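Researcher: Please generate the 3D structure of the following complex. Treat every line as part of one assembly.
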Amino acid sequence: MNKSVQLRNLLKQNKAILLIGAHDGLSAKLAEKNGFDAVWASGFEIAASFAVPDANILTMSQNLERACEINDAIDIPVIADCDTGFGNSNNVIHLVKKYEAAGIAAVCIEDKKFPKVNSFIDGRQELAPVAEFVGKIMAAKSNQVSDDFMVIARVEALIAGRSMNEAIERADAYVKAGADAILIHSKERDQGEIVEFCKLWKKRSPLVIVPTKYPDFSEKDLKQMGIKVVIYANHGIRAAAKAMDEALAVIMRDRSKDKIENSIATMDFMFQLQGMDKMKQEEKVYLKTEHEDVDVVILAAGKPNYQKGLMKLLVDLPPVMLDINGKTLLQRNVEVLNSLGINNIYVVTGYLEDRVDAKGIKKIINRHFEQGYILDSFMQAERFLSGRVLFCYGDVMFDKSIIENLLKRNEEITLVVDPSFKKSTTGAHTLDLVRTKQATVVSTRSFEKKSNPVVEISTKIAMEKADYEFIGLALFSKTGFKDFVHQYQAAKLKYENKSFQTAESFKKASFADMLNEMINNGYYVDTMEVRSGWIEVHTFENYKLASQMLETIK
Ligand code: SPV
Ligand code: MG
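Model: Done. Output below.
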C-alpha cells in the first residue's frame, strides 16, 4: 500500500499515533522493530549524524538521500522534516516532487526564514511573513501528484516569542492554503502553551506536537485536544550518542573491549537489522554457482580404530569432530566446499552421531553402522542425491584445489589417487590400493588431466604392485552415480549373505569393494593423480602433521 495512504489510515484511528526520529536506515529499522507507527526523518538527527549544526547547513539532496534511506529500510510511513523548504516556493515545488516520487508519505515545512536554526537555540528565530509561507503551502499542495500525499505546516510563532493569537492566525491561514495538518511547536517546559493553543484551535485540522521540552500528555488529553501525532524527534540519536560515548571511553581507558562486550549489541542483533537472514534465503534461490549441482556425502559413521595417541584426543568424539588448530576437521572441509559454492553437504553419521555438527550440514543417521561398513553408510544417503556426487571420507582433510580440479573431470567415476604412499612412514593401517592401466604418470605436475583407468582397487593388493593409494575422494557424474546404484542393487541381490570382494559379507563391504566389482564388470573408473594437498588423520603423527600443514592447506 502507498505510504501516504497508510499514514492517512493511521490518522483515521481514534487515538494519536507515535513517531520517533531517525537519521538513517538503521535507526529507522529500530523504530519499526519497536512498534512505532511511523518515522520522523528528523532534520536535527540527520544534521547531528553529519556532526554539523541543525541550521540548513546540509542541502535538500543530502536530507532527501537520508529520507530515502530511512524509507527504504522500513515498511511504515515516513514524515520528512523539510525545515523551511530549503529556500523559497521554487525550492518547495522541487522538494515536493522529489520527496513524493521517493515514496515519502508526508513532508513538514516550517514558517521560519531560510536559513533556519534549530528551534531550541536562543536568538535568530526569525519568522517568514505569513503571505510568503502561505505561498509555499499552496506551491506544495498544487504540485503533489497523488491526493494522498500530505503537507504538514509547522507553526513557529511560539518558538519565536510571538503571541498565541498570531500562532492561531498563522495556523488558520496555512490550513486555508491547503495544509493537511498543523505542527504546533513549543519550547516551554510546561504544557500551558500547547494546551491553550489546542483549546483555541478547536480541531480545525489534525494537530502534531513535538514534546521535547514539556512533559507528555495522557492518551485521554491528546484525544480531547485534537492531537493526532506525537513525535519524539531526537531520542534515538541521543540514546545512541551517549551509549557510544560511554563504550568508547571504557575501551580507551582499558585499552580493551572486554568490559563492554556484554552491554553492546551482539553481531547477530546487527545482522538481523541488516536483513542477513533474508539475504541468505534469497541466495539459496537466486545465487547460482558453478557447482550447485554437486551433492557431497561425507562418511562419518564408523567407530574409529586408531592408534592410542590419537584415541586420547578422541574420547567421546567421532573422528570428524577432531579439533585441529581450533576448528574441527568437518568444519574445515565444509568451509572448503562452501567456498567453492557447494552447499549440499550430507554427513552420514552413526558412532556418537549427536556429537557431529558443522554449519549448514544435513545429517543422515545410520543407526546400524556397527552391522555395516562404508558402502552401506554411503547408500544411506542415496535417496537424497540428485546431482553429481562427491564422495568423501570423513577423516581426510583436503586442499581446495584438489576439489576444484576434481570437479573439472567429466568421466562417470573419478577417484583421487596418490602414488606417494610408498614413501610414507605414517602407514600402519590398511590402505585402499590401486592398480592402474598405465604406471604412475611420471610428472611432478599434479592434476594431470590424463585418463588412467583403474584396473583394480583393493586393500589386498601387494604394496609393490600398487601404483596408487585411493585418498578417499571420488566424483560421480549423474550417470556415474546412477550406474553405481544400479550395480550396487544387483550385487546386493546376488551377494546377500555371501562374501563379496574382500568383504566377509555384502553388508560389510567397503566402497573399494563395490568399485572393484564394477571394474570387474567392465566399468570404466578413472583416476586423478595428486601428490600432496591432503592428509588422512589416522595416527597421532598424521594429526601433528595436519596441524602443521594447515598453514599451507586452504
Ligand atoms: C527535528 O527533529 O529536526 C525537529 C524537531 O525539527 S526539533 O528539533 O524539536 O525542533
Ligand atoms: Mg528539524
